[in-house]
C-alpha cells in the first residue's frame, strides 16, 4: 500500500497536469478500469497496482443543469451562473464538471436536453486558487 507522500504526489500531479491542459488518471493493472481524478488505488476493484495515464479529453455530455445560487464554492463566484453536467469520458469514467458553451437558461438547457447526449472536449479553467476541469460543447 502506498504511503501518504505517494498519494499526495498523485493529487499534485493531477493539478499540475490540469494547469497545462493535461488530464491525468490512473488505470488498473488488475481490472483495466480507469480512476479519474487519479488516486492511489483503483475505484473499481481497490487494487493498489495502478499506472498513471493521460486521458484524451474527449467526452459525452449525458445531462446538464444550472448551478445553484450563490455558487457552491467561492472559487466559482466569478463564473456564476454556469451549466454543470454529468459526462462520460471516452475512457469510461463518468465525471461531473462545468459545461461551457451553453447559457444557464431554461430555453438553452431544454434545447440541449432535446439534442440528447452530445460530444464535448475537456479544457482547463484557472480559478483564483487552482485549475478545474471544464467541458466545452464540440462543434
From TrEMBL:
<protein>
    <submittedName>
        <fullName>OB-fold protein</fullName>
    </submittedName>
</protein>
<dbReference type="InterPro" id="IPR012340">
    <property type="entry name" value="NA-bd_OB-fold"/>
</dbReference>
<dbReference type="Pfam" id="PF12172">
    <property type="entry name" value="zf-ChsH2"/>
</dbReference>
<feature type="domain" description="ChsH2 rubredoxin-like zinc ribbon">
    <location>
        <begin position="16"/>
        <end position="47"/>
    </location>
</feature>
<dbReference type="InterPro" id="IPR052513">
    <property type="entry name" value="Thioester_dehydratase-like"/>
</dbReference>
<dbReference type="InterPro" id="IPR022002">
    <property type="entry name" value="ChsH2_Znr"/>
</dbReference>
Amino acid at each position: 500500500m502506498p504511503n501518504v507522500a505517494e498519494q499526495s504526489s498523485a493529487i499534485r500531479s493531477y493539478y499540475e497536469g490540469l494547469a497545462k491542459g493535461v488530464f491525468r488518471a490512473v488505470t488498473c493493472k488488475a481490472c483495466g478500469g480507469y480512476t479519474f481524478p487519479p488516486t492511489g488505488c483503483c475505484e473499481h476493484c481497490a487494487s493498489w497496482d495502478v499506472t498513471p495515464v493521460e486521458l484524451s479529453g474527449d467526452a459525452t455530455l449525458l445531462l446538464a443543469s444550472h448551478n445553484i445560487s450563490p455558487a457552491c464554492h467561492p472559487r466559482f463566484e466569478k463564473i456564476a451562473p454556469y451549466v454543470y453536467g454529468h459526462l462520460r469520458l471516452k475512457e469510461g469514467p463518468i465525471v461531473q464538471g462545468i459545461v461551457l458553451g451553453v447559457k444557464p437558461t431554461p430555453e438553452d438547457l431544454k434545447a440541449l436536453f432535446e439534442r440528447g447526449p452530445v460530444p464535448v472536449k475537456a479544457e482547463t479553467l484557472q480559478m483564483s486558487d487552482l485549475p478545474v476541469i471544464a467541458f466545452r460543447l464540440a462543434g
